[in-house]
Amino acid sequence: MQAYDLVIRNGHTVTHKEKIKQDIGIKDGKIAALGEVLEEGVREIDAEGKLILPGGIDAHCHIEQKSSTGLMTADDFYSGSVSAAFGGTTTLIPFAAQHRGQSLREVVDDYMACAAPKSVIDFGFHLIISDASDAIIGQELPAMIEDGITSFKIYMTYDNLKLDDYEILNVLAAARREQAMVMVHAENHDVIRWITEKLLDQGHGEPKYHAIAHASIAEKEATHRAISLAELLDTPLLIVHVSSESALNEIRRAQERGLKIYGETCPQYLFLTIDDLDKDGMEGAKFCCSPPPRNKENQDIIWEGLIDGSFSVFSSDHAPYRFDDTGKLSAGPNPTFKKIANGVPGLEIRMPLLFSEGVQTGRMDIHRFVDVTTTIPAKKYGLYPRKGAIAVGSDADLAIWDTEKQVTITADALHDNMDYTPYEGMVSNGWPTTVISRGRIVVEDEELKVERGSGIYLKRDRSEFAKPLERRVPEMDPKTNFNAKLF
Ligand code: DUC
Ligand code: ZN
Ligand code: ZN
User: Fold this and answer.
1) Nearest-CA residue for atom 7 of ligand 1
2) In the chain, what percentage of residues exceed pLDDT 90?
């Protein structure tokens, strides 16, 4: 009887801190041994000349999710998870989205019924909280966190989602009590609304005006405000999908002051610019997302932020709406930018494009690549070291990368349910060719090898990173004789 179910030989393992030539022995879905020579396995893979990275964690993606205006994403848990796996990702954390009036339990139960029978890789959920009533925040949310949904997203914009500052304070206080990670979509709603009205009054409805309406100052102001509210209550906060230099600078300033403020950025801010929204006719609609891609100089600064550690998470923000009447053109063939569904796909290209344009060009250290795509998301969202590590006892979630393989990205070749990709024609130098989840070979020889529904739900721990600092701002400091217990 063989000692291992699977042995991967002769490859170099790469984690967020080390690169080692060693074999990996896998038993019962876990990494059972790491070393130079291991005993035989039932199945053997020769990874000579290849890199073996921990399977990626995409901690921000919208799959089988209805938007606040009622539009369904093009990907369900089957196509979404397959697409993610083909791009080297083995764990997804999409959003169980509450629409106003819904109980969180109902939202999560419904979402589980979508995910469990379809996902081919493991998944956890974040919540989206759009109704911050006392019952939701005081009772339902703590119960969900206790059940392993230890993070949630809130919005500062969108009519049907936005919370006001008072509600955000209530939510932050609850997160602080429960040690949950809060993710915030930081854009100033009224600035966007005001500019939009003016643009549309003047007849400027083309897609490129989406980027004008979602001005970077709206992002900066909301980021600053969200950080201030979090500072007031000494609550950690993660600013998602950061697009602009000015918002990044707000995050940096907070970090320099020792606050637990984290930032996430996404492929669209590294590989697209505002010029893409200015393509002919409705073509620009394919690139409309919020916040929008900005100019080339800004793009370089977002790259720097990812490389220098200002950002800690790199997620796809996959929000797939097809270029037809089910998605981008659901309001008709020629909608104004206000009526164009917000979001771009990116599950499958997230890791390959960053590997190609970051690591292969020498711009980004490979260990940093592993950290931002995999290990830090695992830590920030309570999955480490089960996920995000190559270590004895961790789940055997691995991606074997062929650094020589060149892939031209086309919508046809990707495995999502989209009819376009914003990255059409870009070439990726390097691609994960064999992808393994809990010891199961999910992708090999460009084929899917597992059944739908074979991924499992991940109940997540509370994250260390969501622990408050226990450092009060002066107004709250007992030394000022201010004794009231506000939270
Ligand atoms: N926010 C997201 O997180 N994704 C897509 C669009 C948006 O506004
Ligand atoms: Zn958002
Ligand atoms: Zn998103």
Assistant:
1) 290
2) 94
The residue whose CA is least distant from atom 8 of ligand 1 is 290
Please state the atom number of ligand 1 nearest to the C-alpha of residue 187. Answer: 8
Please report the atom of ligand 1 found closest to the CA of residue 157.
8
Each residue's pLDDT tens digit, 432-457: 999 999 999 999 999 999 999 999 99
Bridge partners, residue 33, by sequence: 25
Range with the poorest average pLDDT among 291-295, 420-424, 467-471:
467-471
Which residue is it, tokens 């206000």?
Answer: 338
Ordered structural domains, the chain, with CATH: 56-382 (3.20.20.140)
Q: How far apart are the C-alpha atoms of 73 and 66, rounded to whole Å? A: 6
Beta-bridged to residue 63, according to DSSP, are: none
> Which residue from 115, 380, 36 is spatially nearest to 238, judged by alpha carbons?
380
Model confidence pLDDT, tens digit, residues 24-63 = 999 999 999 999 877 999 999 999 999 999 999 999 999 9
Closest ligand to C-alpha of residue 155 is 2
Axis crossing angle, helix 245-256 with helix 216-232, rounded to the nearest 10: 20
Q: Which residue has the tokens 């009819």?
A: 419
* Chain segment 63-95, per-residue pLDDT in tens: 999 999 999 999 999 999 999 999 999 999 999
Strand partners, 313: 264
Distance 242 CA to ligand 2 centre (A): 9
Q: Are strands 126-128 and 89-97 parallel, antiparallel or unpaired?
A: parallel
The protein residues having their C-beta less than 5 angstroms from ligand 2 (an ion) are: 185
Per the listing, tokens 């590989």 go with: 271
pLDDT of residue 469: 85
Say what the pLDDT of residue 473 is.
56
pLDDT digits (tens, 9 = 90+) for 407-429: 999 999 999 999 999 999 999 99
- Using left for φ > 0, alpha for ψ between -120 and 50, and beta otherwise, residue 115 falls in alpha
In ligand 1, which atom is closest to the CA atom of 317?
4
Report the atom number in ligand 1 closest to the C-alpha of 241.
3
Distance 267 CA to ligand 2 centre (A): 14
472 CA → ligand 3 middle, Å: 31
- Which amino acid residue places its CA nearest to atom 5 of ligand 1? 343
Which residue owns the Cα nearest ligand 1 atom 1? 290
Helix (H) or strand (E) holding 431: strand 427-437
Query: Rounded to the nearest whole angstrom, what is the distance from the C-alpha of residue 240 to the centroid of ligand 2?
Result: 7
Q: Average pLDDT in the 479-487 region? A: 58
Q: By C-alpha distance, which of 229, 179, 218 is closest to 195? A: 218
Average pLDDT of the residues in 347-370: 98
Distance from residue 91's CA to the centre of ligand 1 (Å): 20
CB-based pocket (< 6 A), ligand 1:
62, 185, 241, 289-290, 317, 319, 342-343
**Taking 80 as the threshold, does the pLDDT of residue 482 lie above it?**
no
Give the ligand 1 atom nearest the CA of 240: 3
